[in-house]
Amino acid sequence: MTRFGAVDCGTNSIRMLITDVREVDGVLEMTELHRVMEIVRLGEGVDATGRLADAALERVRAALTDYADLMRTERVEAVRMVATSASRDASNRDEFFSMTREILADWGVEAQVISGDEEAALSFRGAVDDFHPEEGPFCVIDVGGGSTEVIVGEYDGTVHGSLSVPMGSVRLTERFLRDSPPTEKQVDVARRYVAEHCRSVRESVPVASAKTIVGCAGTYTTLSALAQGLETYDPSAIHLSTLRFNALRSLNRSVLDTDRRTLAENPVMHPGRADVFAGGVVVIDGLMDMFESVAAEAKSSRANVPPLEFHVSEKDILDGIVAGLIDEKLARAQQ
């Protein structure tokens, strides 16, 4: 059939997926060719200044140029690039979009700002791909650098509710967790901030109906690697792994007690993630608080109690973007 490219530029990282799609005996077979990530910290300082830093834009330019070169080498036919959180908020966002249009000129596209709702829907579609339909309803959580998306829905894509909230690893670190390791006071203030947004999630999204909770993106996958004691970052070991709340609480506490330099020395920690990892951990702690409260209420009312565990998915918004590109190509073919 063809090859598709998906690029996601968030607050902390820029990532790319190249997928080969072929039709064999009437069935689409998808082969992942490349899945890469660079920490570019596009959102560095945006929370305070309201603009994208020149150095951050240059880091994105360098990474995206490399991605475009690889997509040309792999003869990618269709590309979609999405931009989230930091680029939505920046006063000089036009500089960013002009740069992406220049680099992706071969495909006639530029980065597209997507809403929190679309970001959640794309993440959901990718994250649940390797689960079974009967494991739903699913609650998919994507903890990013600037925001966290929470969406509840069915395997077939039916969405029951979603919300994007401004709590992410970079945002919390820059706003609250300035020391390394952070002080108890800093962590407490950050927890209160997260708790407030988790209340909004619970009011807007039917999280109590979820049968399976799925966590995707770097904070979750790195925690899984740490929990398993992996010597290297191994996506095959991380994908579909389980993080039980009780054990994860202990791991998160140890992360918050560890300085960034020591975290960075762990071979499973991607370069550039260690200095904002604490922020993502505080977000996940707050989400566990929310789900534990939901479970306690369900138990008191003798309703079904949701399992207190996260299932970790290596698939995410990139896979959702590719699925959308495939849908568009099939739709054109039927016209």
TrEMBL record:
<dbReference type="InterPro" id="IPR003695">
    <property type="entry name" value="Ppx_GppA_N"/>
</dbReference>
<dbReference type="InterPro" id="IPR043129">
    <property type="entry name" value="ATPase_NBD"/>
</dbReference>
<protein>
    <submittedName>
        <fullName>Ppx/GppA phosphatase family protein</fullName>
    </submittedName>
</protein>
<dbReference type="InterPro" id="IPR050273">
    <property type="entry name" value="GppA/Ppx_hydrolase"/>
</dbReference>
<dbReference type="Pfam" id="PF02541">
    <property type="entry name" value="Ppx-GppA"/>
</dbReference>
<feature type="domain" description="Ppx/GppA phosphatase N-terminal">
    <location>
        <begin position="23"/>
        <end position="294"/>
    </location>
</feature>
